[in-house]
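Quick one, probably user error.
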């Protein structure tokens, strides 16, 4: 497969690796972008899953709260940031969030087929077509999730005017302002540090083994680059890997992350939750969270303004 400059550029932007390294990775993997990312990670030239964190599409996320036990979060995309700042679009996104919090739909098809609560003469799909026609720009409801607490509360947090929205479900036998404030603090942490799991115990063995493979490839490469007299036996390297893996897991598991407001800079989220529980005489734990970030995982179409003007002028 021919490796194009555009492919090299995309891989470079998504991994932070050098141009030549990206070209080599694509050549070695016959142009497979995901395999090329893995190739670069194994060679220590790319950070884990940087591509997944790239934000590209425009639009908004929003939450809707029915009560302490029920809330929803949605993401609605637009083509331009200009439309995302439009009051009419913002009101529409809020209406979608309210629709989701009242909905029992389990998938997008069912959701789109529902009666639109703001005007039951039309469906959600028909309301979407209508707002698209009014705004004259493609609008899409990308995703939604409803969280219903079974043994506690759901606390929302919206960051950056809707760029990121978070719902946190906590199991608790005490509900007061102190508990709610603590859960909101944790929601802010989730927005800022993007954990993937609540606790290290939630991480599958499959994921652990995959990361061990990546870390081993990195460590072996580093070892080969050392002077011969300083190289370590492979069994020593493999023991060292567990320390690296634990460090990585602490970064992606909420309970094991350092709490961002920790006064000593060491207190973990789990320790913070235990502290709040003790102070309020509660049995408190984080059960789950949902984090939506606008455009997460979507590549933005790049426009060359000069080329666009030339096309409109009939020069190309």
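Nope, works fine. Designed sequence:
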């Amino acid at each position: 497969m021919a490796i194009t400059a555009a492919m090299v550029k995309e891989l470079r932007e998504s991994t932070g690796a050098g141009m030549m390294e990206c070209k080599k990775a694509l050549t070695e993997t016959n142009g497979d972008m995901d395999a090329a990312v893995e190739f670069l990670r194994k060679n220590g030239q790319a950070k884990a899953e940087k591509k997944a964190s790239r934000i590209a599409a425009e639009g908004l996320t929003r939450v809707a709260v029915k009560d302490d036990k029920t809330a929803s979060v949605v993401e609605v995309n637009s083509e331009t940031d200009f439309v995302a700042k439009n009051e009419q679009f913002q009101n529409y996104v809020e209406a979608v969030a309210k629709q989701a919090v009242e909905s029992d739909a389990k998938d997008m098809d069912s959701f789109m087929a529902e009666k639109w609560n703001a005007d039951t003469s039309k469906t959600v799909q028909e309301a979407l077509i209508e707002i698209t026609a009014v705004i004259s720009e493609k609008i899409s409801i990308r995703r939604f999730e409803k969280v219903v607490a079974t043994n506690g509360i759901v606390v929302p947090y919206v960051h950056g005017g809707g760029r990121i929205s978070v719902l946190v479900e906590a199991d608790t036998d005490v509900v007061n302002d102190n508990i709610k404030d603590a859960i909101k603090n944790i929601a802010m942490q989730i927005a800022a540090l993007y954990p993937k799991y609540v606790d290290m115990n939630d991480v599958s063995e499959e994921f652990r083994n995959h990361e061990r493979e990546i870390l081993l490839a990195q460590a072996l490469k580093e070892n080969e680059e050392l002077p011969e007299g300083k190289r370590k036996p492979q069994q020593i390297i493999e023991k060292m890997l567990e320390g690296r893996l634990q460090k990585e897991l602490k970064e992606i598991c909420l309970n094991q992350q350092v709490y961002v407001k920790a006064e000593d800079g060491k207190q973990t989220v789990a320790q913070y939750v235990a502290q709040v529980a003790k102070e309020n005489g509660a049995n408190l734990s984080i059960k789950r969270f949902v984090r939506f970030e606008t455009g997460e995982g979507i590549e933005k179409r790049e426009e060359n303004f000069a080329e666009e003007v030339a096309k409109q002028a009939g020069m190309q």
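Residues 48-56, 302-306, 308-316 have pLDDT under 50 and may be disordered.
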